Amino acid sequence: MKQTKNDRGIQIRRKIKTLFYGFVNMWRHYVRFVRNGNYDYYASQERFLAMFISNYHVIEKGLAMPNFELGHTRDRVLLVCGDIVKYRELGFDTKNVQYQSALQAVDSYRRIHDEAGYKLDTELREAIDKALAGVDFEPHNQPETTCSEFFQRDIDFEKFARSRHSVRDYSEREIPIEELLHCADVARTTPTGCNRQPNKVYIVKNKDLIRKIANLQGGGRGFADRANAMLVITTRVEVFSYQEICESFKSGGMYAMNLLYALHDRQIGACPLVWNERKENDKKLRQWLGIGDNEEVVLLISAGYPNERFKYVQSNRNALEESVKVVE
Ligand SMILES: Cc1cc2nc3c(=O)[nH]c(=O)nc-3n(C[C@H](O)[C@H](O)[C@H](O)COP(=O)(O)O)c2cc1C
User: Which residues sit opposite 269 in a β-bridge?
Assistant: First the structure.
């Protein structure tokens, strides 16, 4: 019977291919990123919005936080007000859903402070007034819901998918490890290239460790440290060969989505958390969790049962046409 060859000569040739193609393929992504990455915000409406959304999202997120502090995110509101004015000056579409959402976030921020009798400083007040003066939009607050309304049972997939939102308000209720293992088991149904199954999830339940990871991550400030579980998604790089240098992230991304749905199905609130690749942070996380050098850290997910009543962020989506192109 013919065996797979793995003698020294063939190994060395494969190593050279891995070195060469790994570099060439990464280089192609790098060049595309340098050419197209978002550094000139004013070049187009799309580029402006990409920056704009991430700024106003901080405000809407803050408004839905369990312990929203009056006066908090002041600098971000100021920044977004400037962005709103600039957006109009550049002549971009003022009917755009993201522009409208930014107006709603700033307006909601002002209303919440007014209702609480909190005096915003003059600079901020003037900036808000200027941003919202004479513009047309529907006032909107971040939705408040109940567990039974949010986690509906026996619904079709479309309703299920539309009912999932990132949850950032966690109760102290313990998530049994069996439930998390069940979700990880369901997430294993994720398709993977040639069924090589590189995905893995580290389930962290230790509260001190959760806090440490949340502090390191940063983007979950104000809520991730209160999660009942922190899930760290990795992919094993060793299943990929020389033409597949970016596959780890695609594979882990798909797994993460499946895991988010599995958590939602078990009525566990969850929020994906970006894992930035700063070397010192990556090293610490790897040490704390025993993540091997053979694994790529893709994404974190904070999880917890919400309180009976809680708020979430609407996070409006762009129009369908912006994410679809039907090719005849
Ligand atoms: C890769 C990725 C990284 C994210 N990182 C963070 C984060 O660091 N902090 C946070 O609060 N939300 C984070 N989110 C959640 C997004 O803000 C959220 O998914 C988006 O606004 C859409 O809202 P939805 O999940 O409620 O549909 C992240 C989401 C993804 C997919």
Answer: 304
Q: Which atom of ligand 1 is nearest to the CA of 312?
A: 26
Alpha-carbon distance values, 193 to 246, 255, 262, 277, 292 (Å): 12, 12, 21, 24, 21
66: which DSSP letter? T
The set of protein residues with a Cβ atom below 6 angstroms from ligand 1 is 57, 61, 165-166, 219-220, 271-274, 299, 313, 315
What are the domain boundaries of the chain? 41-142, 146-311
Rounded CA gap, 40 and 69, in Å? 33
- What is the identity of the amino acid at 73? T
Nearest ligand 1 atom, CA 253 = 1
The SS3 call for residue 206 is: coil
- pTM comes to 0.90
Q: Say how many residues make up the chain.
A: 328
Q: How far apart are CA 151 and CA 138, in angstroms?
A: 27
Q: Where are the alpha helices (DSSP H) in 66-146?
A: 74-89, 97-115, 122-132
Question: Which tens digits make up the pLDDT trace of 293-321?
Answer: 999 999 999 999 999 999 999 899 999 99
Pick the CATH number of 146-311 from 3.40.109.10, 3.40.800.20, 1.10.3720.10, 3.30.300.30: 3.40.109.10
Name the nearest CA neighbour of 167 among 268, 259, 270. 270
